[in-house]
Each structure stands twice: as C-alpha cells, then as structure tokens.
Amino acid sequence: PFPVVSLMVGSVVLTMAPDEKFHIMSSNATGLNKTLIDTASRDAQRVVIASTLTFLVGIIQLVFGALQIGFIVRYLADPLIGGFTTAAAFQVFVSQLKIVLNVSTKNYNGILSIIYTLIEIFQRIGTTNIADLIAGLLTIFVCMVVKEINDRFKHKIPVPIPIEVIVTIVATGISYGADLEKKYNAGIVKTIPRGFLPPEPPAVSMFSEMIAAGFSIAVVAYAIAVSVAKVYATKHDYPIDGNQEFIAFGISNVFAGAFSCFVATTALSRTAVQESTGGKTQVASIISAGIVLIAIVALGKLLEPLQKSVLAAVVIANLKGMFMQVFDVPRLWRQNKVDAMIWIFTFVASIIL
C-alpha cells in the first residue's frame, strides 16, 4: 500500500459503504431508541468493495500493458519524479510522525491535508506519549548510525548489518518484559490476525460504480511505482520496461483481488528499507515475501507487544535517501533553470494538492 493510493481506495470505500448504510436501532432500559452501527457488516462490505476495486484496477493495468501504453514512462522527466518522490517521502514522514509521538489526529483528505495533519499534530503535541517518543528517537538514531557504518565499511563487511530486524526483535522483547502498554500507555501493535482468507470472486456488479475511480487509481498507482523505480534505476544504472511494469502490477492486483487484498503499488518506505539494507535483485523480494508469509501464518503473535513508534521510526530512518534529493535542486538550477522549476513546482503541488 501507498498513502496516496490508500486515500483513493478509501474514498471509494467510504462513498459506497458509508456508516449511514449500517445503522441499527436498539432500545435501552429507559425506552429511548439509540442508533448503533453494525460494524461487522460494514467492515465485511468494505473489504468486498476494496478487493473488487483491486481486481478491477488489475484488469485495467493488464489492458494498458497489452496496448503498450507503458511508453508514457519516457515522458516522466527526472526532475518531475524527483519532486514527486521527495513530496511523497514528506507525506510518509508526516503519517509516521504522529505514530512516533502517539498523537491521534483526524484523517484528512484532499487539498492541504498534509498541512492540516501537521497543524493538528502540533496542537496536540502536549499529549505525546514519552515512552513512545523515546523508543522512536532511539530507533531513528541507532538505525542511522548503523546504516552509516554499513555504508562506510561496505567493502569490509560481507553482509550489511540487518539493523531493522535487530531493532524490531529487541524492542518487542523490551516492550513485553517491561509491559510498556500497561505501565506507560504505549501504543503497541496489539492483535495481528493469523492465516489467510479463502479466495472469493469479485462482486462484478459493482464494476459500473467504480470504473472511473479504478481508471484513476490504475494510472496513479503506476505513476508512483515507475517514479520510485526510476529513482533507483538512475542510482544503480539499469533500464525500466514500462509495459512490463503495467503487466506485472496488473497480474498482482488481479490475483490479490481474489484474496481480499488491497491495491498494490510501490511502497516508498519499504522500497527504501529494502534498498538500504542491500537488496539488489528480485531475490530480495522473494525473501521478504517469504518472511511476511511466515509472519502471517506463525510469527504474528510474537510481534503483538511491539511499539508502533519503533516501526514508524524504522520507516523515517529509511527515508533519508529520498530527502537527500532536495540537494539536487541547486545543481539543477545551475544546469537548467526550467528543470529546477519543474522539480520545485511538482514538489509544492504534490504537498498542497
């Protein structure tokens, strides 16, 4: 999942299955009727809508791939991608900041949503949970120091130190041993559902209601994926086939839609984690997918005491590479002022809009 795509999927789900559709009347002891929400039915319906939308997005992406529309990759200029991915990193940072502080905010959507979220975070900063803040800051510090060591001594260390895994295991042990949730009201992962839901066919009757949104999501998800891919393609010097990307995401989403899944695109934070820990080929994806599979089936229970602020801090520590792209702007300004203006305009528009 990716924040922008999550918001787009969320708006479709909320439009098609609002709370009002699931009101049930109940009378209490005083004889007054009270309106309640049937959350079980609502959530089940929302899963059906999200997975059907995922299936539809997959079909649209497969059609685009078959029609060779991937050529549009050529027209995504590097300054546009740099501005967009830096703004996306800022958006991810804001979404994780409130988790590190354990400050609750409303879910803002649309124009200036990042700004509204930041304002509310600072308004509520007095409610910060100190245990979560300390855990988050320690995690960021440790991750950044070890990554610097990995980078500095990469020729001497045969395998980079997997600091994210170490931090996760240690933090889970400390949280469980010190009972941080009860003693300090720390925000922990809590329940992690185990196992898989059986495959289900999509609700084809809903396609007509979501076709326009499906088209938008298919294009935006693709643009995000290719933007992130081009950043690393430039860094590691390899080419990207736009049609292959369309077909790969199309197959992923069609398959995932049958298993009650969510529209997949490139997750900026997890891509950054994988690249900065030394993942270079598709084998890294197979290994990470295999570990996720083991976690879903067996390990989930062990990670339940983990503080959410530690996970958020791991994500923030790995966004450093994306934020460093800001230093491209002075270079672009010297080389070509139009390129620099494209970068700045894309960055500002992505944050505001």
UniProtKB/TrEMBL annotation:
Q: Which GO terms describe its cellular component?
A: membrane
SLC26A/SulP transporter domain span:
1-346
Localization in the cell = Membrane
Q: Name one GO biological process term.
A: transmembrane transport
Q: Which residues cross the membrane?
A: 48-73, 80-101, 121-145, 157-178, 210-233, 245-268, 283-303, 310-327
Q: In terms of domain of life, where is this protein from?
A: Eukaryota
Q: Which UniProt keywords apply?
A: Membrane, Transmembrane, Transmembrane helix
The protein's topology relative to the membrane is:
Multi-pass membrane protein
What's the protein name? Solute carrier family 26 member 4
Taxonomic source organism: Chelydra serpentina (Snapping turtle)
Traced from the root, the source organism's taxonomic lineage reads:
Eukaryota, Metazoa, Chordata, Craniata, Vertebrata
* Gene label: SLC26A4
